[in-house]
Amino acid sequence: MKNIFRLPVDNQHFKETIEDGKSIGEIAKFLHRDVASRLNGIFVNGKIKYWGSIPGLSNNRNFKLLKEGDELLCYRSGKYIALCEIAFTSINSELSKYSWGETETGKTWELIYFFKDILYFQIESSLINNEFGFKNSPVMGFNTINSDKTKVFLSKHGSVKSFINKMGYENKIINTTLEQINKTKILTPFEAQYYLVDLGNQLEYDTYVPTSDAGHSAFGKKLDEMITIRKTDLSQYVAPAIINPLSNIDVIWFKNNYQPRYFYEVIHRSGMNEAFARLKAVSNHYETAKTRIIGEKDNVTEFEKSRRLYFPDSSKISYKNYDDLIKIHTESAYYNDIVDEFII
Hints:
By secondary structure, this protein is α+β, with helices and mostly antiparallel strands. It contains 16 helices and 13 strands. A hairpin with a 3-residue loop joins strand 10 and strand 11.
């Protein structure tokens, strides 16, 4: 009986080694001869597609279970976005380091699994989780679905791929602003965080909100189901001296191995000076990252007063209002839907 696995994926690495993949020529110098020989027979659209996990008790156990023909569901932001069929596995720290870098402690994602077939889609996780009898909660790590649930599922559907194909593209769920959001005003700070996180995901950043906010919902979805980075991830990459102010920023967009690119503070009714203090603390450590405050239009005057105190150089920070956030989110979601409809 085949095994079925689940895995949370970020934006950047998913695109680089699963969606785009690498040519055999690019990665050959990191491969053992027998691995290179096996890979020559499993190109996926002309590229080698693969993923990796950091060694650890749970990951080691699941890695040993992987075998040819097993299916792996990729999860991100409340959706399953791809199904990968396992070709074979290999432990390779050099390929991992080349592909994804390493943690501050020198760990690599060296438990590597290569794929021979990949199906891309966007399906609400609940539609698949229900078939396994799971509660609809985020996928928190590389894991295998237990054998009893797998056996029942396979006896009913044959495979995850056949189940997805039977659903048909007409049942494909793509949550866009036009489909799920009928509000024209942001009524809570968590709604502003929703827009910022979803926009960041659309633009292929990795996204973060503080643990204290992650359990809150906006438009029927918990923020924790949408973000791709959590505080436990940050602790591996962020210096202890800065972890406190950084982990309390309302929304952060990351690129390139947990490098912050945008810091966002949401000012709904109060807290302007506190927001500026946090942004000032992190901006001193990440000079290339951009700092932004988001709020109602009538907060601009208060913003300018605080800005002169904390950021005398006005080029270091800017104010964006809720209406502009909704507008750009809507246009971005609409554009992505048009692209999706064209390439399907």
